[in-house]
Design a protein that fits this description.
about 180 residues; tt1808, chain A; two-stranded antiparallel ribbon
C-alpha cells in the first residue's frame, strides 16, 4: 500500500502549482488511488469519475466519483471531491447545491468525501430520524494528509495547512 500512497502523493502534489488546476484535475489520481487500494484488498468494486445517476424523483445527480458493484451495474458509493483547501468536515455536512450530499446519502446510505489530502466516509445511522426532511449524518473519518506529507516533501508546499490535524489528533465526528 505504501507504493500506492506514494504514487498518489507524487501525482497530486504537483497539481496546485499550475494555475489551470481545477477540482476535476484531481479526479484521475483519486480514481487510480481508490482502484488500486480496492484491488489490493481484492474488493470487487469499479471506480468511475464524473458519472450521471438518475434520481428517483426525476433529474440527475453528478457524483465526482462513484463506486459500482463488480459488474458495474449498481451504484454502491457516491463520492464528492473538493479542492485541498476545503475542510473535509464542511464538505461532509454541506447542504449546498440543493443538499447534494444528502441526495447521495439517500441513494446509497454512504458518501465518500475528499479534499484530495484526506478522505471521509459519511454514513446514515440505521435508526437515523430525518430532521427537517434530511438525514442525520454520522461519519467515520480518515485523514491521510500527514502520511502524504512525510512521504512527499513537495506536498507540504502544495496547500497543506501547518495547523492541519495529525492522525493522532483525529476522532470520528458526528452531527448534532
Amino acid at each position: 500500500m505504501d507504493t500506492i500512497f506514494r504514487a498518489y502523493g507524487d501525482e497530486v502534489a504537483a497539481l496546485p502549482a499550475s494555475h489551470s488546476t481545477t477540482e476535476p484535475s484531481y479526479y484521475p489520481a483519486i480514481k487510480m488511488l481508490l482502484s488500486k487500494m480496492l484491488g489490493h484488498e481484492t474488493l470487487p468494486f469499479e471506480v468511475r469519475a464524473s458519472t450521471s445517476e438518475s434520481r428517483a424523483g426525476g433529474g440527475h445527480d453528478l457524483p465526482d466519483l462513484a463506486l459500482y458493484d463488480g459488474h458495474g451495474d449498481y451504484l454502491v458509493v457516491a463520492g464528492e471531491v473538493k479542492l485541498p483547501a476545503d475542510d473535509i468536515k464542511a464538505i461532509a455536512f454541506s447542504e449546498e447545491r440543493n443538499d447534494q450530499i444528502g441526495r447521495y446519502l439517500a441513494q446509497t446510505g454512504v458518501v465518500l468525501v475528499s479534499n484530495v489530502r484526506g478522505f471521509g466516509l459519511l454514513t446514515v445511522r440505521r435508526d437515523a430520524p430525518r430532521q427537517r426532511g434530511r438525514w442525520r449524518r454520522t461519519t467515520a473519518y480518515l485523514n491521510t494528509s500527514s502520511s502524504f506529507g512525510r512521504r512527499n516533501p513537495r506536498w507540504n508546499n502544495a496547500g497543506r495547512s501547518p495547523t492541519e490535524p495529525t492522525p493522532d489528533s483525529l476522532d470520528p465526528f458526528e452531527s448534532t
